[in-house]
DNA sequence: CTATATGCAAATCGTTTGCACCTTA
DNA sequence: TAAGGTGCAAACGATTTGCATATAG
């Protein structure tokens, strides 16, 4: 459960594994794929497992500065690349700003994106996978994933505007 | 109407204005916004009005080489920027490849994207705007647009794989 | 004529890569 | 100790920008 300041809006995320469980899962997956578990990687996994605010690579890096002052941004990108290969992180690509990452829910799911402040949240909106199946049947495409973003002003930025 | 080679798949796009009408609309919009209608711009509008294959800026440029050998890629980007401002072109952003543009249907609508060859088509899939409205009501976001992409292998690339 | 557009080349910026030095297992 | 990881700096590539010249209205 999570809520916006200055707003009565609340939304729930489906009951999923805890952050700790997610981090452990991701670590196990990397190890299984033959990768080493360094302190840097574990720290990056921890941030991505929480994915609070759907951070960019730079935000992950910034968040770890206190604990790991010498960690380089390249290491963050390299770790994210491994996780992408393993299907353990969802990447939201943008061409006009940093990509954003969700390691807590790596399966495709809808996002609400504030066009003013860049906030990204997970709304509760079930029943989309059916759409993908239907499309596969109708079009001959072998649909394997999807992306659904809604763009608009979040309650906070809405208030600021008026 | 349009179809893939080596495939019985067909899809239809909603009945819309013809390419010529779209081009004229876009030109009128630019003029109304105080911009000049140069031969380069008109040529770019023509390609975007058709939007066959949802071209990238580079593809638009390449397609116009024969007629306008001296046209620069920067001019294509600048014209697209004007059209984006005017809401006359839909931009599909990607961070790992060129952005793609649709000037024929500038309103948000679903896309089917082949992860192998990059083909982009418009499937017929009505009833999504309701979703956006519902989300607005539920979340407090002022949802103004959306993006829905389905990723998979198109029939042609599917055949090549097996 | 004058504001605006074009074309070129340089700048931007997120991301990736090469490589010498470290670390995990 | 060997395979793989880290950090740095340079390279990349799509897009944007500055500016001198050209052109639409």
From TrEMBL, chains A, B:
Keywords: DNA-binding, Iron, Metal-binding, Repressor, Transcription, Transcription regulation, Zinc. Zn(2+) binds at residues 114, 117, 154, 157. One of its GO terms (molecular function) is zinc ion binding. GO terms for biological process: negative regulation of DNA-templated transcription; regulation of secondary metabolite biosynthetic process. Binds 1 zinc ion per subunit. Coiled coil: none annotated. CDD domains: Fur_like (cd07153). Fe cation binds at residue 146. Gene3D superfamilies: 3.30.1490.190, Winged helix-like DNA-binding domain superfamily/Winged helix DNA-binding domain. Its cofactor is Zn(2+); Mn(2+); Fe(2+). The keyword Protein biosynthesis does not apply. The keyword Transcription applies. InterPro entries: FUR, Fur_C, WH-like_DNA-bd_sf, WH_DNA-bd_sf. Belongs to the Fur family. This is Ferric uptake regulator, Fur family. It comes from Alkalidesulfovibrio alkalitolerans DSM 16529.
